[in-house]
Amino acid sequence: MAISIGAIDVRRRRLLAGLGGAAACAAFPLAVRAQDPVRIGVLNSISYGPIVDRIDAMLDRIEDAGFVDGQNLSIEYLSAEGRAERLPLLAAQLAQLNVQVIICLTGASTVRAAMQATSTIPIVFAISGDPFELGLVANAKHPEGNVTGASRRTEELNPERLKVISEMVSASKPIAFLINSDLAPAATTNERIEQMEATATALSRQLVVIDLAGREKALPAVFAAMAQQDIAAFVISTEALFSVFRDQVIGLSARYNIAAIFPNREYPHSGGLISFGADIYEHYRIAGDYVGRILKGEKPAGLPVQDATKFELVLNLKTAQALGLTVPPSIRALASEVIE
After folding, report:
1. 107 pLDDT higher than 50
2. 3-state SS assignment for residue 180
């Protein structure tokens, strides 16, 4: 079933101005609503709430191409709500609706489901991870078939995140690495862990790997256990599912006085300590550009896959003070943004 409320949430700040769904529909002139709009689909592995701002950035670029949601553009939002097994059915629903583009968000699983559902409808993704290594494209510069998009390879930055947070907490205490092995191939997960262990060894730090697969609803117990192990800080992996529990993770970090470094600015802006990663909105903007170009007649095969190239460190000083941390001058000097 299409998540119409998702569309209302996504455009609430600039398009709907606080109106309810029915009132918003009535707000458009009859002549505009009588037109046959272009229809596209959005497939997401998690709920839309945590990524509303990202989708707004993408829709801005689609609007720049002349396609306005609610006027000459109709969007079908479908979400698996964290249940990956639902994605093939949802992708098939979008294919049956004969949308002109399927936009796949947050993870490779959405793209794979869309690829299984159609080989003709253009698919544009905005995901984290390397699309080539994930098997989504055979050639990033010259995509074949109907798939292209933009990505953030932020998992490669986990060792750098470990270095940053190591400068902010006691050297005698361990640091945890939170992952979810259900959301990546086993070989990929093992490679990420090995990289982190090698970095920890070079820093003379003890690293504790914590796999949250199947334990997402037990986060309070996980944090209580970390506190018992006297863990000083944790690095959180960038899998999409963690976005769903962002506020809970930040709250538990504060409750147990455990520092954390996160993959993107949304965390410190929500009260988390610090983030280091790619500009969370850049690859959504690229995807929006591509959707607009495809709707105007270009083919996915002619649009090379792009990686986000802008990186930023965002620091929340208020949270640092609450955790009793002194921020080294070297970290402050690296910050793209400091939240006072």
Report:
1. yes
2. coil
